TrEMBL record:
CDD domains: F-box_SF. InterPro entries: F-box-like_dom_sf (IPR036047), F-box_dom (IPR001810), LRR_dom_sf (IPR032675). It holds the Pfam family F-box-like. This is Uncharacterized protein LOC113213490. Residues 1-44 form the F-box domain.
């Protein structure tokens, strides 16, 4: 080993597992020093008491955090029952920290964990959340929270709001509490990606982060609340509209003042989360936004729960997208999401957006990609042609759009039993049909007649580019 340069040994140690890497400290002085060098640790994933890891790996994580100089990612659950490592004082600097809080009493500790990592100067991505089941229990016991608990939660919120140096911040499920977020600490704009559920009580926090990082933010996701119950303040929309680098936005369609965001000239991709059966005045802003935002290139309209009537005001949002005739949208995705069993029985219209989409398509001359996640009627697919969609190049169909249940059918049988694909290719020969990312053949044992026959063996490898060729030569 003497002839080997330290750089070579460090490259080898990158492939040694954590247990053996720690053991190298006992071999000789040279390996002891190299085992604690940043290079063998910088790409490591360390997880403490996660349900995804066993006790053996979790036991190694604690000594690793005591000795290692750095790691790529740390997944940590608080409170930690088995490992008593002082996470608030570890010198192991991580670039990505994922915190799962299982108790509201650990907010103060979580705040100090984050502050410690920020002080180490390597943290660039932070994800923090409460498990949904725990969150329900916390909300039920909110009236009994002590001043210490409220202080800890407030400290954590301010720590997240004041964090500088991060590139990505994601705040998942969290207790619904009102906080007046203010800080005398200067915020250095650094965030490029920000995700947080937008609710009335959380709007001050969201606005604080958006304002502090307005110069660098590129992707903002304010989704998470399907009820779309946001406050009647246009402050969030005004902050979004003023951003110079915002490229992607995901938010509720009922965001107050959303029409103002159309002024953001850098915005290219938008996902609107739509709660169906809302009064027309609640989606009026979204209608104005889609009419004015002619700079958009990608638009996704996600209805949760799915719309059930063509008279639903939100269904007409597709027509608003093409209203001006100056749309430059190249990619359009529509998902008419889950509905209750009663709603499915009460209507035969699984895709009430059909007529709105057909009327909008001729006014979307730049549309190259159409993605339908919901069950689309055959007449809609057959209406796609050079006259209605001259620029269309790809049609991506979700499982329900293809009209079958993946538990009982396969894409191979769909090739033979569904005439839509063949007719579509005859009308629009240049179109590329993209199926869902599932295996083409039935799993063993073969369940369908066509898979038993053994034809189209080229599909058995789940190679999606071959799908169009298979469509063109369906065997009899």
């Amino acid at each position: 080993m003497e002839p080997l340069h330290d750089d070579v040994l460090l490259m080898v140690l990158e492939y040694v597992d954590v247990k053996d890497l720690l053991a190298c400290r006992l071999v000789c002085k040279r390996l002891a020093e190299l085992a604690l060098h940043p290079q063998p640790w910088r790409h490591r994933l360390l997880r403490v008491h996660s349900i995804l890891v066993g006790d053996a790996e979790a036991r190694l994580t604690c000594p690793a955090l005591r000795l290692a100089p750095c790691a790529r990612r740390l997944v940590l659950q608080l409170p930690s029952k088995k490992c008593q490592l002082p996470y608030t004082s570890t010198r192991c600097a991580v670039s990505h920290l994922m915190l799962e809080l299982n108790n509201i009493t650990v907010c103060k500790q979580a705040a100090f964990v984050i502050r410690n990592q920020l002080a180490l100067g390597r943290l660039r991505e932070l994800n923090i959340w409460y498990p949904p089941g725990r969150l329900i229990m916390i909300e039920e016991n909110a009236s009994t929270e002590s001043p210490q608990i409220k202080f800890g939660l407030s400290l954590l919120i301010h720590t997240l709001a004041e964090a500088s140096g991060l590139k990505k911040l994601a705040v998942g499920s969290f207790p619904d509490r009102m906080f007046d977020v203010h800080s005398t600490v200067p915020i250095t704009s650094s965030l490029k990606h920000f995700r947080c559920e937008l609710r009335p009580k959380w709007q001050p926090f969201v606005d604080f982060v958006l304002a502090g990082h307005s110069a660098t933010l590129e992707v903002v996701n304010l989704n998470g609340c399907w009820e779309n119950s946001v406050s009647k303040s246009t402050s969030t929309a005004r902050l979004l509209a003023a951003m110079a680098n915002l490229r992607e936005l995901s938010c509720p369609a009922v965001l107050d003042g959303i029409e103002l965001v159309a002024k953001c000239s850098s915005l290219r991709k938008v996902t609107l989360h739509i709660r169906s059966n809302k009064p027309s005045d609640l989606v009026a802003g979204a209608r104005k936004f889609l009419r004015r935002a002619t700079q958009l290139r990608e638009v996704s309209l996600e209805y949760h729960p799915g719309a059930t009537s063509r008279d639903d005001p939100a269904v007409g949002l597709i027509r608003d997208l093409a209203w001006s005739g100056r749309s430059r949208v190249e990619s359009l995705a529509i998902e008419n999401g889950w509905r209750s069993r009663k709603e499915r029985k009460d209507t035969d219209d699984n895709f009430p957006q059909e007529q709105s989409l057909l009327r909008a398509l001729p006014a979307l001359p730049a549309l190259e990609h159409l993605h339908l996640q919901s069950q689309a009627p055959p007449q809609l697919l057959l209406a796609l042609g050079p006259d209605t969609t001259p620029a269309l190049r790809t049609l991506e169909l979700g499982v329900y759009a293809m009209g079958f249940d993946v538990q009982h059918h396969c894409l191979h049988s769909w090739l033979h039993d569904n005439i839509i694909a063949d007719d579509l290719l005859k009308v629009h020969p240049s179109i590329k049909l993209i199926p869902p990312p599932f295996e083409y053949y039935c799993s063993v044992p073969k369940d369908c007649t066509w898979c038993k026959s053994g034809c189209h063996q080229e599909l058995s490898g789940n190679d999606r580019p071959l799908f169009r060729d298979a469509l063109l030569k369906v065997c009899s």
